[in-house]
Specification:
Low-confidence stretches: 36-49, 240-256, 264-271
Number of domains: 1
Shape: elongated
Oligomer: single chain
CATH topology: Leucine-rich repeat, LRR (right-handed beta-alpha superhelix)
CATH superfamily: Ribonuclease Inhibitor
Order of helices and strands: HHEEHEHEHEHEEEHEEEHHEE
Distance between the termini: 44 Å
Structural class: alpha/beta
Length: 271
């Protein structure tokens, strides 16, 4: 358990099992490569890459093309994925500058999309309009500052990771995703917590807002009884001397439903 990130552990049994399954899938893919059961194709950038064949994809239910220095998704991979009926796509750790339009035939069937650690600057709205079955999305470690309004159509979305981007606020389109349980948006430039928006997410249990530019925590946050894990470390909170005790004893810290709460880097001001 020591090597597993804290936010993964906080997701509970289902989240932990999902993480461990992804690790097993990677090991299975490596084994298939050693046996020669995957086919190599050239990538657009000239470096060799590997497209898992239909057997590998069907076994893992995932099209795994992580860490291949891809600038596009090979046509062969899409064709194999369609025949294998995959429900997940992993395009993390590549050099994609946009969400590939070649994913369009797959998006309607996907439950999980991981395109973290690329160079994305925007997400095309029409593509998100297709992915109505998506439950888990990872857009972390990109260059995103906004999400398309079409994201509000993802009514089955349960978890989204937007860590390490350029957001200055939680995207409004997410407040309409009524099934959202986990929102990870640390290491951005968020300045304030929209308590009215969070009230709309009645199933939201895990929020990570660490390492942002949040100056204060609204006391009403403690009234959101569905929240079990709240991370705010790395924000320079500033309160006046007359309000310092109100800050410490606001309902946020008294909420009995919180099983994990982290607030570090409290900056005291005597103004």
């Amino acid at each position: 358990m020591r090597g597993i990130r804290r936010d993964i552990i906080a997701r509970g049994t289902q989240g932990l099992l999902k993480y461990l399954k992804s690790r097993i899938d990677d090991e299975e893919l490596s084994r298939l490569r050693e046996k020669g059961q995957v086919s190599p194709v050239p990538s657009l950038c000239g470096s060799p890459t590997i497209v898992p064949d239909k057997y590998a994809m069907k076994t893992a239910s995932v099209m795994n093309l992580a860490g291949k220095e891809l600038t596009f998704v090979p046509k062969e991979a899409i064709e194999n994925a369609l025949e294998a009926d995959v429900t997940g796509v992993d395009l993390s750790k590549n050099i994609l500058k946009e969400l590939p339009s070649t994913l369009e035939p797959l998006l309607g069937k996907l439950y999980e999309l991981n395109i973290s650690s690329n160079k994305l600057e925007k997400i095309p709205g029409p593509l998100m309009n297709i992915g109505v079955n998506l439950q888990f999305i990872n857009f972390s470690n990109n260059r995103l500052s906004s999400l398309p309004t079409e994201m509000k159509l993802l009514t089955n979305l349960r978890e989204i990771c937007l860590n390490c981007n350029k957001f200055d606020a939680i995207p409004n389109c997410l407040y309409v995703c009524g099934k959202l349980e986990t929102l990870l948006i640390s290491d951005n430039q968020i300045k304030e917590i929209d308590i009215d928006g969070l009230r709309e997410l009645t199933k939201l249990a895990i929020i990570d807002l660490g390492n942002n530019n949040i100056a204060s925590v609204p006391p009403e946050l403690g009234n959101l009884r569905n929240i079990r894990s709240l991370t705010l470390d790395g924000n320079a909170f500033r309160v006046s001397e007359k309000n310092v005790w109100t800050f410490y004893f606001c309902p946020v810290f008294e909420a009995k439903n919180l099983c994990f709460f982290s607030v570090i880097n409290f900056a005291y001001s005597s103004s």
